[in-house]
Each structure stands twice: as C-alpha cells, then as structure tokens.
C-alpha cells in the first residue's frame, strides 16, 4: 500500500521505501529499547512538536498514549527536547541525561529515533499530509550489542571510526571501508549502528548519494537544481543553528 | 556546497539570504524555497499552506517533494549533530572560516563542539 496516497502527486519510490522502513523500525525492537519504548519515543516527540507549533495537531489515532510503555522519564525528556530544538544544547544536556539514569547507548538511540521521526513529520508537513500512523509494536527484545570498535572521536558519545580503524563494523555500518563514506554526521549515531543505517538510507533517498556530494551538478531529481537543493539545506541548518 | 554549486553554474549567490531569508539569494526561485523552509521548520502552522502553494505554483509538484525531502533530511542531520555534540572535521573548517565569521555561525552554541575552529 502506498505510504502517501492522500498526496495528489507522485513521491519517488526510493523516498516512499525509505520512509516505510523508518516507520517500521519505530515499532520494532531496537538495540537498547524495545518496540513499545521506541514507539513511545516517537509519540512523545510528536506530542512535543505539536505543542511547540512545529506540526499540526495529530489525529486521534496518533495522539499521546504512552503511559503503558516502560520508557524512563529521562528518555522522554530527551525525546521532547531533541524533537523541538537542539539549538541551545551543550554537553550538560547529555551529562544530565546520564545522571538521570540513561546509558550513552540509550541516549544515542533516543536521539536517532527522534531525529529520523522528525524528518518524516517535516516531510509530511511539507507536502501537506498528516504525519503517518505508527505500526503496531512488534514483540521481541532489543539486541543490546555495543559496537566493539566504538571509541572517543571528540563527540559526547563514542563512535565507530570510518575506514580500517572501524574494521568490519565500519563496513557494516557505513557500507564501505572508505573513510570518506563516514563523515562525522554519519558517525554521530554509530554507537547504535542501526540508527546510522536508517539515517543513511533516508539521506540517500532524500538528499544525495554521498559519492556524488562533491559533484556540483548532481541532484536526485531534475525538478530542482543543486544550488536550490543547497539553499534549502543551508536554511534548515541555520534555523537549527547547526555548526556542523 | 551552496557556494560551490552556485559558482559551478555562474550564479552570483548571496549566502546572507540563508541568515535573512527576506534577502535575494540569487538562486532561481530562492524566495519561494526559503519561504517554504521557514514555514515547514517554523512554529506557525498557518504559514505552511500558503508557502507550499507558492512553491507548487512556481516550481511544480516534483520540486515540492524534493524541497520537503531535503528539509526532512537536514532535520535529521542537524538534530543528530547537535544532540551528539560532534565536531566539524578539519577539512571542512579550512575553507569556511571567513563566511562562518561573517554569518555568525561561529557564535552558534553547537560551535563549542569544535574547539579547534
């Protein structure tokens, strides 16, 4: 079933497929959170974004109903803040989350889920359809596998290095043993590799294939030029006050 | 990449428009694209529909999808970067010092994650 049947124009298949996979992942067991907890993270994020006016009020089937999930309060607070704005965050935000009981891996997975879910909701708002409903949560346990190659590379959490330093985990996570396939924006969430894989799948569908990044003519669709693509990208990053 | 891609097409881009979206960016249809981004990423639900319609009328439905997808993509990347506290790699720092200072990007709270800037 198409994901955006209520939009009267076509959406490229690769976008539909990436967004469908993302939605499914929000209702499936993750690496450190189970399916109900991941679903609750998205619901919490959406509730916060609606409250901040960043997306339209949700239909009743999407509305807040997270009291039955065992998601810790600290994770809910991270989800809500990251969903609304990360503009003013500094390391004290991460330190507080850890002090409140989250592990670095739980923090990273929470950020990854919210960051990817926010993207789907921005897209829906952009084309003028409601946020997509979340699937029913699946059973099963989180895999709880911390990457052995993760190390301190200068961020608040550890990450898997690109290239040979990351070994097989880098290849599995970034799809290549080339260090250039792993810019820091992709290594950011790599303490939870599945989140990176989702991020890269979406980026490849929505923005660019990394191997074409330096080609100033490349776009994924001829309806928009590369300068127009980059103007949109730059303005979003200014709004989000992202130095990276 | 905004400057590089514009230069490749001999477009005299005004990157100050990324800071003040009321300025002329020099990019074709830049006005409707910036208006769209401000609406989709902003807190005014009433601004979204007219911004979407303006983009749709000027650039067509395929471009509307692309603009929404790019805004979505950077909504992920910016949140991940800021909430994980990643630094900017040196190779990207070298060529950006002048415009980062001019545009005030060095003053963003997230700039503190790059102590070597």
Short description:
Chain A is mainly alpha-helical and 244 residues long. Helix content of chain A is 48%, strand content 0%. The longest helix of chain A has 24 residues, at 104-127.
Plain-language structure description:
The complex is a heterodimer of chains A (244) and B (117). With 244 residues, chain A is mainly alpha-helical. Among the domains of chain A are: 10-145; 215-244. Chain A is built from nine helices and no strands. Chain A starts with 12 loop residues before the first helix and ends in a 5-residue tail after the last helix. The model of chain A has no long low-confidence stretch (mean pLDDT 94). The longest helix of chain B is centred in the middle third of the chain and has 24 residues, at 61-84. Chain B is globular, with a radius of gyration of 16 Å. Chain B has 117 residues and is an all-alpha fold. In chain B, helix 2 (30-40) runs antiparallel to helix 3 (45-59) and helix 3 (45-59) packs across helix 4. Chain B has six helices and no strands.
Amount of beta strand of chain A: under 5%
Strand segment tally of chain B: 0
Strand percentage of chain B: under 5%
Largest sheet descriptor of chain B: none
Radius of gyration of chain B: 16 Å
Low-pLDDT stretches of chain B:
none
Question: How much helical structure, as a percent, in the residues of chain B?
Answer: 55-70%
The span between the termini of chain B is 19 Å
- Quaternary status of these chains? heterodimer
Order of helices and strands of chain A: HHHHHHHHH
Spatial shape of chain A: globular
Main beta sheet strand tally, sense and closure of chain A: none
Structural class of chain A: mainly alpha
Mean pLDDT of chain A: 94
Low-confidence stretches of chain A: none
Structural class of the helices, strands and pairings of chain B?
mainly alpha
Interface with most residues:
A-B, 80 and 76 residues
Gross morphology of chain B: globular
**How many helix segments of chain B?**
6
Q: What is the helical fraction of chain A, as a range of percent? A: 40-55%
Helix count from the secondary structure assignment of chain A: 9
């Amino acid at each position: 079933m198409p994901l955006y049947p209520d939009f009267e124009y076509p959406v490229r298949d690769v976008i539909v497929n990436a967004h469908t996979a993302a939605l499914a992942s929000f209702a499936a067991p993750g690496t450190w959170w189970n399916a109900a907890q991941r679903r609750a993270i998205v619901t919490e994020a959406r509730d916060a974004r609606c409250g901040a006016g960043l997306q339209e009020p949700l239909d009743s089937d999407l509305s807040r109903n997270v009291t039955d999930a065992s998601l810790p309060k600290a994770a809910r607070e991270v989800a809500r803040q990251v969903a609304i704005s990360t503009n003013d965050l500094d390391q004290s935000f991460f330190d507080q989350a850890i002090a409140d009981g989250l592990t670095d891996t739980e923090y990273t997975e929470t950020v990854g889920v919210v960051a990817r879910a926010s993207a789907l909701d921005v897209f829906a708002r952009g084309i003028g359809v409601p946020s997509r409903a979340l699937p029913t949560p699946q059973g099963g346990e989180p895999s709880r596998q911390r990457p052995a190659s993760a190390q301190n590379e200068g961020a608040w959490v550890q990450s898997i290095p690109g290239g040979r330093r990351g070994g097989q985990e880098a290849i599995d996570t970034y799809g290549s043993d080339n260090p250039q396939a792993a810019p820091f924006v992709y290594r950011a969430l790599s303490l939870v590799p599945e989140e990176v894989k989702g991020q890269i799948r979406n980026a490849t569908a929505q923005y660019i294939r990394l191997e074409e990044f330096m080609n100033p003519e490349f776009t994924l669709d001829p309806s928009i030029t590369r300068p127009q693509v980059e103007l949109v990208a730059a303005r979003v990053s200014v709004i989000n006050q992202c130095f990276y | 990449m905004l400057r590089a891609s514009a230069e490749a097409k001999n477009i005299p881009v005004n990157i100050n428009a990324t800071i003040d979206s009321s300025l002329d960016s020099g990019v074709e249809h830049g006005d409707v694209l910036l208006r769209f981004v401000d609406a989709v990423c902003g807190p005014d639900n009433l601004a979204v529909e007219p911004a979407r319609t303006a983009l749709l009328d000027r650039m067509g439905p395929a471009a509307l999808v692309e603009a929404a997808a790019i805004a979505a993509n950077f909504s992920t990347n910016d949140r991940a970067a800021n909430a994980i506290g990643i630094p900017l790699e040196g190779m990207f720092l070298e060529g950006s010092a002048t415009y980062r200072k001019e545009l005030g990007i060095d003053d963003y709270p997230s700039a503190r994650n790059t102590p070597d800037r």
